[in-house]
Write a structure and sequence with these properties.
Blueprint: H1 4-14, E1 22-26, E2 40-48, E3 51-58, H2 59-66, H3 71-78, H4 84-92, H5 100-113, E4 127-141, E5 163-167, E6 172-183, H6 201-208, H7 214-218, H8 229-238, H9 252-274, E7 296-300, E8 308-312, H10 327-331
Bound molecules: zinc ion (ZN).
Residues 289, 291, 293, 313, 315-316 line the site of zinc ion (ZN).
Region (Disordered): 92-116
Biased composition (Basic and acidic residues): 99-111
GO molecular function, one term: class I DNA-(apurinic or apyrimidinic site) endonuclease activity
């Protein structure tokens, strides 16, 4: 599934659509309530880890909040004639004095302070859609994805969009292979998001020092939101750490180096994506490491958790403690 840098790129694709009104809803999704998006306005767009959040709100609401709608239009609204025409008029005028970001900050402050009338804040009536992407999940702006190879039956069949949002301006957003859910808030935690400037190194370091294989901790989205299997394999190689090394037994300098690589690799990957460039892997999917050593491949994961493939070089990434020397095997 797309990792943090891909989802951040998707978010940047949707950002120019904020402020536009949905004119038509299409796509293969059978979720009936997605049709409700028609005539709603895209109010905000945020990425957090592997999730994309889009906020939608009634166009009328922005007027009420902005404070000074023209009396004539208010008359129309009061009579219940909330139409797309009104929406367009509203959009042209100074709809809102608060930017979407300010809405978010205001809402957050009010939530934190438990102000009783917080429900009057504009953002509180927004509906959020959470998008979680599958393996080939993606977003396109103003274009559809085309088949780049034939399927098993030899047909060149274009991918079917899950959701298509057409906007008033004849522009559109297309969503592929994703799960879509309504939610009340975007659940953004920048402190654990590897691509956020607010990523909390201290918190991440404490997580890495847990007495468990380092490759389990790296994929734990509570601490490393947006970090996926490609990033995991690549940064472990770059930091010369074996995937099964125990976090609690690794030198602090090694863990610091791993964190540096996590942030740097993810940021570089995002920049490459934005420049339309691919990524050159050092170890992921490789048979030889860059130094020519044979690469090992095995599936690792917590007993009751998700297991993922790891690639590593036993020579460049020595295990800590050495194999057969870990506390579990000593017991036997
Ligand atoms: Zn090697």
């Amino acid at each position: 599934m797309p990792e943090g840098p891909s989802v951040k790129r998707f978010q940047l694709l949707t950002a120019p659509f904020v402020g536009q009104v949905v004119a038509k809803v299409g796509g293969s999704s059978r979720q009936r309530n997605l049709k409700d998006l028609k005539a709603m306005k895209l109010q905000d767009s945020q990425a957090s880890g592997k999730n994309l959040f889009l906020a939608f709100g009634a166009v009328l609401e922005a007027w009420t909040v902005s404070g000074s709608p023209a009396p004539a239009i208010r008359g129309k609204a009061d009579s219940g004639a909330c139409s797309l025409t009104l929406a367009q008029e509203g959009q042209e005028a100074d709809v809102s004095r608060l930017s979407p970001k300010e809405h978010g900050v205001q809402r957050k402050q009010e939530t934190e302070l438990s102000v009783p009338d917080a429900s009057h804040a504009a953002g509180d009536t927004w509906k959020w859609l959470r998008f979680h992407f599958g393996l080939f999940g993606s977003i396109r702006a103003n274009e559809f994805s085309r088949a780049n190879k034939a399927n098993k039956r030899g047909d060149w069949k274009d991918p079917v969009p899950r959701l298509v949002l057409h906007f008033d301006s004849d522009s559109f957003l297309v969503f592929y292979n994703c799960r879509i859910h309504w939610c009340t808030s975007p659940a953004v935690e920048p402190a654990s998001d590897i691509l956020s400037p607010e990523f909390h190194r201290g918190q991440a370091l404490a997580a890495l020092r847990q007495p468990m294989p380092i490759c389990y901790t790296l994929l734990d989205q509570r601490y490393f939101s947006g970090l996926g299997n490609i990033i995991k394999n690549e940064i472990l190689y770059l930091a010369r750490i074996h995937p099964l090394s125990q976090g609690s037994l690794l030198a602090l300098s090694d863990l610091e180096s791993l964190l540096d690589h996590a942030v740097q690799f993810s940021t570089d990957w995002l920049h490459k994506k934005l420049a339309g460039k691919g990524l050159h892997y050092q170890i992921y999917l490789k048979e030889k490491c860059p130094l020519g050593h044979e690469v090992m491949q095995e599936t690792f994961g917590p007993q009751d958790g998700f297991k993922r493939l790891s690639w590593w070089c036993p020579q460049c990434q020595p295990r800590v403690p050495p194999e057969g020397n870990d506390p579990k095997s000593l017991k036997h």
